[in-house]
Amino acid sequence: MQTRENSIPGVQASVKRWVLYLTGVLLAFSGGAVNGVATAALVFGRTAHMSGPMNDLLRNLIFDLPNGLLAACLIVSFMVGAYCSGILVPRRGVTSALWVSAALLTAGAGAAALKTGQILLVAQRYIVGFLLALSAGLQNGATSQVDIGRTTHVTGDLTDMAVAMSEGNRAWAAFLFAKLAAFAGGGLAGFMGIRYSLPVPVLLLSALMVVAGTLCWLTTGANVAATRNHAAAAAGFERQIRDRVREGTDFILLDFSGMPSIDLSAARSVEEIVREAQEGGKAVYLVGMTPEVRSTINSVSS
Question: What is the pTM of this model?
Answer without folding.
Answer: 0.71
